[in-house]
Amino acid sequence: MNPPEASKDVESVALVTFVVCDSVNMPQFVCSNCISSNVECTHRGTMTKDEYSPISMQSLVEEILTSSPRYCVPDSKEVVQQMIIDLATYSRNLENRISTLVKKLSAMNSQVLVDAPTLTDENAESEYYSDDNNSIRWLSGFMSNISIQREDDGRKKKKRFFGNSSTMALLKSIWRLPDQPSLEGYGTDKESESESESEYPSDVETIATTPECSKIYPVPSQIKIHTEPLLDFIFPTHDLILSLSRTYFDYVQITVPFLHRPTFERGLSERLYLTNREFGALVLSVCACGARGSSDPRVYSEDPKKNAKAGYEWYTQIEPMRDWNCLKPISLFELQTNINYMLFIPLWLPNWSILAHTIRAVQELGIHRKRWYTQNCHSEAEKELWKRAFWLLVAFDIYLGDYLGRPGLMVPEDHDLDLPIDCDDEYWPSEQSDPSKAFKQPEGKPSLLSQFITRLKLFTIFKYSQRTIYAARRPQFIMGSDEDWRQKVIAQIDSSLNSWVEKIPSHQDQLSKDRKRIFATQAAALYSMYYFFQIQLHRPFITKTSGASTTATGESSSANASVHMAICVNAARSCIHLLDVYSQKYKTPPIPHIYVRLFSSAVILVLNISSGKLTGLSRNSTTDRESVYKCIEILRRFEGR
Fold this sequence. Notes:
Layout: H1 3-14, E1 19-21, H2 32-37, H3 54-66, E2 72-74, H4 77-108, H5 124-130, H6 132-144, E3 148-150, E4 156-158, H7 167-175, H8 190-194, H9 203-207, H10 211-216, H11 238-252, H12 261-269, H13 277-291, H14 304-307, H15 312-315, H16 332-344, H17 350-365, H18 380-404, H19 450-468, H20 485-502, H21 513-538, H22 554-585, H23 594-610, H24 612-615, H25 621-638
Parallel strand pairs: 1-2
Antiparallel strand pairs: 3-4
Helix pairs in contact: 7-23, 11-13, 13-16, 16-17, 16-18, 17-18, 18-19, 19-20, 19-21, 21-22, 21-23, 22-23, 22-25, 23-25
């Protein structure tokens, strides 16, 4: 379109006029203009006053804007005047509704959003700025959590954020115990809130390990951008690789199953790690993780401090973010290596960034969608490996986000793929001569993967609690204006947990001793996570001010806190008892990050000992104190593993 034509079009649009319509005086209300043009008349006579409802007004607006030919204005001045008045009234009602909705949304967002000024509020601008005091208080509270402190080496480091669900928040509650003999006032003392943070360890100082561990695990270089060429891998001897890989599949794979053992062992027998760098990195990661549970004298030491370094020489060679290329799709070997890398030092701060990069990389491939698995570009076995790895990323995202108190990267609506196939490795297509038997577990023989699938379902329940109980503001998918919605959500989650427990498969009738050990390890990992999730679910409500309804009386609030505290205490006792029995029989922890569950359980019991008034139960501080000591003993049994 050239400029002159464009100018004419603009002028024609600007000079649009209404054609007087005489449909009111015509038979069947069809105007003479439409009769002469031989077109259907879009005007249907004059509406009565009662007909100007919101629906009819929407129709009128639509008719005016979309009529072809142009909308015909009634020739009656009274009708036109009434139409204009009704349109103005309709517009004013819409503005009032918008204003009301904005105010309700602002209240729901808990000072995150402020009331927006509207055309209908005469004092809108003054009201908009009258909330300055609340805004200043919110901003002051927010800024007080941001600081820069100087390290011993003179460099500046910003403090990291740890939310309410984090272990850091739980630890800080212990620091305040000497000044807070009872939980009834916990978190409400204005003097304690104004105390300098220097009296308590900062987030950065708390996360730092002891000097001994800092020497064992110095910060690896993979979190930096490298330009130097990649170094050749230094592998252990082949027989040691075989020994460590057996330990890996016997102790790690049973609770974190994402490798196919026969396929991996075929790669080892073919010495594929010497020619394929990606597979070589995977082998090093398997050796590093396997060394933690190995009794091979070449890697194991009776000294826990020395044994804590087992596998570190192979772990440091893996640098998942060193040559990260955003244009190069991630491979299956790279994905599996990254998972092992995060397992070696679980819940380690850099894992948060590594997990984020890995999730974005697999989402780029589309393995989070079901339709990806209908393609024919991969074998069925390879598709299943991708699926297992992705579900582990989902679990890591939930668990690591909970540990750090940060929102996860994924929500259930983001992926629609099926759960992993409940089938042991020996029944995969590559191990079956009969294709009809592929991925079919024999009846009466429980799969080693069934506990992992059950655990994934528990993670799904816990993810919902993260999106509701620990949400920064009221989730949009929770409708209504009930201020006590958190208590109702907790009741719903508790019901889901009870239903989940009833469906846990029981595998206690196995004849094989080794298989009994595997199922015992899986059960310890499963139930300890269940107890830990119970604690995390009810922990925000063990004080009056941390989640109970603001409209409830002090007495009812205290009663609710007693119920939540009792649930946390029972879960903590059960978790400690379970792991105490397990650790006396097996010296390898059932899952790498088991110490977090022990720590949370111990802290809950310490809180219960120090604040018996809140529970309303007869305290048995001696029993709880013994349970805390049991936690220390369990950690000593697992030390170096």
